[in-house]
Design brief:
heterotrimer, A alpha+beta (369), B mainly alpha (343), C mainly alpha (386), A: 369 residues, Phosphorylase Kinase, domain 1, Transferase(Phosphotransferase), domain 1, 2 domains, 13 helices, B: Cyclin A, domain 1, Cyclin A, domain 1, 15 helices
């Protein structure tokens, strides 16, 4: 036992904590660096012994999956060490996430940018699915962006292996706005298609710059989905009325995607529509998505290094590492992902000619015009 | 104008790494027969020396007539508790996955620890509980302990972190029973595929062998596909051979013979008398430092407390010095990681 | 502690308003409460935006006349300069005719010196007021000091003075220190005060600009919507007129009108697309200008990792004899299908396990047990040396 402890102590010495950047219910996140190389890292310290059932399930899942998955589009777990009462995960440090980039109205997205992000997301997701792992918490907030522009899927706290036949899974997964209708209807036997729905919602959000299907409650979420995509018939989605929590939320007509995504190309809408098909088995798989004509059509996906960056990212890149402003982010951020820099300071932002001519964000109105 | 999508796998000529080879199981929990023997012997010797020391420092000469367990006896005891895991799983109706994972955790634990420090009785309960979590079949601690006689929550939880640590937090396990399922499905594709009744018998027999194999060390040496093939071969040698040949896996055939021998030789249940004897010895030779409330335990705690106190004093001293020299708030916590154990 | 200094200064700044007069350089309006007195007591503590809420509690009771909110719903307690509370009617009654002693401590008070309470604790109220006053003069920033130590010393001095003033220790000596500082640092004080004002000004301008932009946008939307509505109205009316006045076939007219409406809608979206396109061109030009080295975009490659998942070794059949999954596949209720569960995924996984590592030779010999490799870095090194 002492040998194990000693090994841990040695391992611990390779990593240095610099500053606390966030705190969540079961973990504290620090920004730090690798002593030997100066590489920026995040250390997620998980307190053990807090819950009446012992080690927290989310912690267990994160460690289990991050240990096994190594892929350029999945966050990298560099090391794990533990002290008497703490479990420390050393992860690569990522400045920002897709949510912050979408919300930063000073950034303009080109179609090529969206293509690039989608490609990276699909690649990371395809790798999870190739390993028969469902992520079950995909949202822009959990897609972290590195300083070189690479997108990485993070937060495996809700992930699990695909179930063996006949074994139930919980339907209370995925953040509501990105949750597919089969989960909202309470189904306990599902597949990797649930992640594809989430990616479809993210795809739409990248184009609209606001969440595509923001419901205010589970019931409202269903209504929002059906208002946008039409209520499914039994031919479209066989058997859905038999799902455990099925309720009728109203009949809405199907409106063409073209009406909302006016500037999108045919290929774009084709791929998007394939991600948000009602019947889960018909939804496109991650691998097929990567082979979809959308990605091969012009323009080429933007090279990751040229993707839009938030002001904080550009600033962080130009400043020497020690002076990065690490504001403590109380409450938010930490449970979801890893150390992120503070949100860009709003003050002192100059308005450019750009902003005034930008298209105005309207609240999406799915009611018949 | 569109670019034609490529039709073949499109990675550069760099060698592709097979998925199993990138798993923690392949990288960190694979050993040779000799390594296993050597590791267990080393662990055993080290712990015997340490315990003997504790005995001696308490009352000199007390250790001379104590029978300390040897590596084989430890191994036998662990084997018994592997069987107990299966029984418990039957009682709880846990899925095969949970049982297999719990057993693997127990085995791996005792490659890092000795029975004289940690009695398999509680480690077994904890390993199984942890397995329910990592395989996504969680059960509340309450329901778990309620259904096991003479067990309370702390018996299970106290060791959880220790077990996880000893596993190096590597929780994912590739099991042979799933590989067997795969082979069994695949042989239905062969021209020589047996009829359904035969298939069913083959499956059940092979699964029996898989369960027996869990009592041996094979999972620590061979990949699950080979173990599964060996079990299939024990149930129906011809079909197993056909299948292996269809996959061009001739190299596997040699390994399979070795596995079959091991399963047959080591897959037996230890005799009750032998185990009882070992348990009796264990009561005497177990490490007093780990027994809560014993003299040695308290002495060790006192030592640890002193160390912690020294650390705290040092830290306070550093702060005091910093204040006097003018920088009480400091700028960056460089190099403080060592002191940071439980901040 | 030091980083918040500038923010603290602006926060502590407050102003007094007199009803009926316009006050320059302050923002919007402090919530005005109904009172019977002729002077509105404002001031007290404000935050940078000029909006504060007054402290209010259901248990408020005037210590002098003992009226509470139940008897007098409009009860408003104000605080004297010696930090004792009193309701407005008492203040009116006692001080309208001129200065008079405080009923609690006897100190001579004037009507003007009563301010509304912002904080529940009067000690805090006093401290905040003192800090506010001090901050007007002790307004140095980190940049004004050569090093961190001297800045911290300055802050320490300010804290000392504050402490003394709050607790009324060594008042004359402390006042002397303040005076001394004032004399020595007159220039600094002036400079920093100007800086403060400039900052506030800039903030204001920025908010103004943002507000203007928001208004502009809202107007644009309104205008666009109105135009659409008018256009549609016009079309409808034209159609109705046409139907009434002309002899032509009604159906044809309607179809014509619809076609024209579509054309107009198409024109509008085309115009919108033009705008978007122009903006994108602009963005691309900007980006090209910004980056020194132009990294070309690469054509899409579906999979970029180097993993081999044994695809060539396992072929999935459409169906197997598999009692374990019979019930699921039968799926009488159809909920497996509705939920999207695919037995094929479980089969694929099993098939992969069946072939994974089939050709691996087991480790041999007594190589020394390596420390468990838990980090990728170690693994790479170990792999490389094998």
């Amino acid at each position: 036992m002492d040998a194990v402890e000693k090994a841990n102590a040695e391992r611990q010495r390779r990593w240095v904590k610099d500053q606390k950047v966030g705190e969540g219910t079961y973990a504290v996140v620090y920004r730090g660096r690798e002593l030997a190389t100066g590489r920026k890292i995040a250390i997620k310290k998980i307190k053990v012994g807090q819950f009446k059932d012992g080690l927290d399930m989310s912690a267990v899942r994160e460690v289990k999956y991050l240990r096994e998955l190594q892929h350029p589009n999945i966050i990298e777990l560099l090391d794990v060490f533990s002290s008497k009462t703490n479990l420390n995960l050393v992860l690569e440090f990522l400045d920002t996430d897709l949510e912050m980039i979408i919300k930063d109205r000073s950034l303009v997205f080109l179609p090529a940018d969206i293509k690039s992000w989608m490609a990276m997301t699909f690649r990371g997701l395809e790798f999870c699915h190739r390993n028969f792992i469902l992520h079950r918490d995909l949202k822009p907030n959990n897609l972290l962006i590195a300083s070189d522009g690479q997108l990485k899927i993070a937060d495996f706290g809700l992930a699990r292996d695909a179930a063996d036949p006949g074994y139930k899974m919980t339907c209370q997964v995925i953040t509501r706005w990105y949750r597919p209708p089969e989960l909202l209807f309470g189904c306990r036997y599902y597949s990797t298609a649930v992640d594809i729905w989430s990616v479809g919602c993210i795809f739409a959000e990248l184009m609209l710059r606001i969440p595509y299907l923001p419901g205010e409650s589970d019931m409202d979420q269903l209504k929002t989905i059906f208002r946008a995509l039409g209520t499914p018939t039994d031919e479209e989605w066989p058997g859905h009325t038999k799902l455990p929590d099925y309720v009728s939320v109203g009949q809405f007509p199907r409106t063409p995607l073209r009406d909302l995504f006016t500037a999108a190309s045919g290929d774009t809408l084709n791929l998007l529509s394939k991600c948000i098909i009602f019947e889960p088995r018909k939804r496109i798989s991650a691998r097929d998505a990567l082979y979809h004509p959308y990605f091969f059509a012009l323009p080429y996906p933007t090279h990751p290094s040229k993707l839009p960056k938030t002001a904080a990212q550009t600033a962080a890149a130009s400043r020497p590492p020690d002076e990065v402003d690490g504001n403590v982010d109380p409450g938010g951020g930490a449970p979801a992902g890893v150390g992120k820099a503070a949100p860009p300071k709003k003050l002192k932002r100059k308005l450019s000619g750009h902003d005034l001519s930008r298209n105005i964000a309207r609240k999406l109105d799915f009611t018949a015009s | 104008m569109q670019q034609q999508p490529p039709t073949s796998p499109d990675v550069s000529s760099a060698a592709k790494s097979p998925l199993f080879q990138s798993s923690t199981q392949y990288r960190n929990w694979r050993f040779s027969v000799e390594q296993l023997k050597a590791t267990r012997a080393a662990l055993n010797q080290a712990s015997v020396a340490a315990i003997r020391n504790t005995f001696e420092s308490d009352s000199p000469g007390s250790s001379s007539d104590v029978h300390f367990l040897d590596a084989n006896e430890e191994h036998l005891l662990v084997k018994l508790y592997i069987i107990k895991i299966s029984q418990l799983c039957g009682h709880f109706r846990f899925p095969e996955e949970v049982e297999a994972t719990g057993i693997t955790y127990l085995k791996r634990f005792y490659l890092k620890n000795t029975v004289m420090d940690w009695h398999p009785k509680n480690v077994m309960l904890t390993a199984l509980y942890l397995a329910t979590k990592t395989t996504n079949h969680p059960i509340s601690l309450e329901s778990y302990t309620a259904n096991i006689p003479r067990t309370n929550a702390s018996d299970v939880l106290d060791l959880e972190f220790l077990v996880a640590q000893s596993l190096a937090f590597e929780f994912a396990v590739w099991h042979a029973h799933r590989a067997l399922w795969g082979i069994w499905l695949d042989i239905q594709d062969l021209p020589q595929a047996p009829p359904h009744e035969e298939l069913q018998r083959i499956h059940d027999t092979a699964m029996q062998h898989i369960r027996t194999s869990r009592l041996t060390d094979v999972e620590l040496i061979y990949p699950p596909s080979q173990i599964a093939l060996a079990c299939l071969s024990l149930a129906h040698p011809e079909i197993a051979a056909f299948w292996a040949r269809s996959k061009n896996a001739d190299t596997a055939l040699e390994a399979i013979e070795s596995i079959k021998r091991t399963i047959t030789r080591d897959g037996d249940t230890p005799s009750v008398d032998v185990v009882r004897e070992i348990d009796r010895h264990l009561k005497i030779c177990k490490n007093p430092e780990k027994v809560v409330g014993s003299k040695a335990y308290l002495a060790k705690r006192a030592r640890e407390e002193k160390e912690a106190e020294l650390k705290r004093k040092k830290k306070a001293e550093n702060v005091r010095k910093a204040t006097e020299q003018g920088n009480p708030f400091g700028e960056v916590l460089v190099g403080q990681a060592n002191l940071d154990d439980d901040d | 502690m030091s980083t918040n200094r500038t923010n603290a200064a602006s926060w502590l700044r407050g102003t007094t308003i007199r009803k009926g007069t316009t006050t320059p350089a302050t923002r919007s309006h402090t919530p005005q409460t109904q009172t019977s007195s002729s002077i509105v007591f404002s001031g007290g503590v404000k935050d940078g935006s000029g909006r504060t809420s007054e402290y209010f509690s259901m248990d408020d009771q005037c210590p002098v006349c003992k009226s509470d909110r139940y008897l007098n719903p409009k009860l408003r307690l104000l605080v004297s300069s010696c930090y004792h509370k009193m309701c407005e009617s008492c203040i009116d009654r006692l001080y309208t005719l001129g200065p008079a002693p405080c009923p609690v401590c006897g100190k001579t008070l004037k009507k003007m010196t009563f301010i509304p309470q912002t904080f529940e604790d009067l000690v805090v109220e006093k401290e905040v007021a003192i800090r506010r006053k001090l901050a007007k003069e002790f307004n140095k920033r980190r940049e004004d000091f050569p090093d961190l130590r001297s800045y911290d010393d300055y802050l320490q001095e300010v804290e000392d003075i504050t402490f003394n003033l709050i607790n009324e220790i060594d008042i004359p000596e402390t006042q002397a220190r303040i005076a001394a500082y004032r004399k020595e640092n007159a220039a600094f004080i002036e400079l920093n005060q100007q800086r403060e004002e400039a900052y506030v000004q800039a903030l204001k301008e920025q908010e103004e600009a943002e507000r203007r932009e928001r208004q502009l946008r809202a107007e644009e939307i309104r205008r666009a919507e109105e135009e659409e509505r008018d256009a549609r109205e016009g079309e409808r009316r034209a159609l109705i007129d046409n139907l009434e006045n002309s002899d032509a076939d009604a159906a044809r007219l309607v179809a014509q009108a619809r076609a024209e409406a579509l054309k107009r809608a198409a024109a509008r979206t085309a115009a919108a697309h033009q705008a978007v396109f122009a903006q994108q061109q602009e963005t691309m030009r900007l980006r090209a200008a910004q980056s020194a080295v132009v990294v070309p975009d690469q054509p899409h490659v579906p999979l970029l990792d180097g993993y081999y998942a044994y695809e060539d070794l396992c072929g999935l059949r459409s169906s197997y004899f598999d009692p374990a999954s019979d019930a699921v596949r039968r799926d009488k209720e159809g909920i497996m299908r509705a939920g999207g569960y695919r037995v094929e995924e479980a089969w694929e996984r099993a098939l992969r396990y069946a072939v994974a590592g089939l050709d691996i030779t087991p480790p041999l010999g007594e190589v020394s047990m390596p420390l468990p490799i838990t980090s990728r870095v170690d693994a790479d090194v170990a792999m490389a040396s094998v």
